[in-house]
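Predict the 3D structure for this chain.
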Amino acid sequence: MRDIQTQLAQETPYLIALRREFHRHPELSLREYRTAQRIEEELDRFGIPHTRIGETGVLGVLRGAGSGNGVVALRADIDALPIQEARSPEYASETPGVMHACGHDAHAACLLGAAKMLAEHRADFGGEIRLIFQPAEEVGQGAKPFVEAGALEGACRVFGLHVASDLPAGSVGLKPGLNNAAVDHFRIAVHGKSAHVSTPQLGVDALYIASQIVVALQGLVTRRTAAVEPVILGVGTLRAGTTYNALAEFAVLEGTTRTISQETRERVRAMVDQTAENIAAISGGTAEVVWTDFAAPLINDPAVCREAAAVAERLFGPGRVITDRPLSLSGDNFAEFQLHVPGTYAYLGTGNPALPATMSAGHSVTFDVDEATLPLGAGLYAEYALSALSMV
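Done. Predicted structure below.
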């Protein structure tokens, strides 16, 4: 394993070039066609068979030549965000309004770097390493198709990583238990009746109803949820009306909830449904709530987390593994894989005060990563896979 890490350090120019290529050509969720093609081209170079999952997901299957028949899965997400990059590095996004502002370009590069090294060391392990390049993480739709396609069948472990600007470069966060919240999306369609603004009694104002729903939803957190339990309920969009002097016949609002347990998740959903429907009914209209699951709570299996931490300790050095990173109410649908296979999610420190952009939070217009950390990310993927297979 040490030999692999030495080789990966020598592959730093390759990893940086690959990450910058992905950064220049970001693609939104479920539109990652160029990205998927480039991933496939690299896997072909390494002699790793692969298949498409959906239109833009890629599953590579690397079989070792040694003894053993275990299976471990490694996952990287590949989609970008609808954000206009504010900086102009030489590798800035060439796609207007789209940017890799969450590090998925780095994740894809790290997993490909790991694949390259593992392919060159086939004789050193037995069993199978499945390489999951997942689209649509940002919209919570990319993981389930891999599960349904059997990508995790027979796997003993699943491992993933995410860059973390809040952790110093050269460190890694590996926290047992709850790391990220469950994320759900809701869409509330309000139906009213149009009428002239001068005769409101003849209509039902869908815009007024929607506005009341927005205000009431905030009260669900402050008045119907325990103050010690983290819950977020936010409304991000409200669209209604066709002209300034008429009651709106239709309104749509969209938002998200963040919860940390399945019980609270279900309870908050029920409260949102009840609130929207009752407020609409009071004013003579109707409201329909449609929910979309984006991500379950991300809970690292304690035993798997300890395994990964032991690998990271060897790779990063003493004192560089952080086990008490604070809970985040952001989500990641890597959690979908953890519902089926014991797994852990690592947070690769990429913040460097000498490079101010690397200190920007994810989803920021100035986001960047310290590229010197790419070999560490690739090494963590590769060495954890080998370690997990050796325990089967």
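Residues 182-295 form a domain with the Alpha-Beta Plaits fold (CATH 3.30.70.360).
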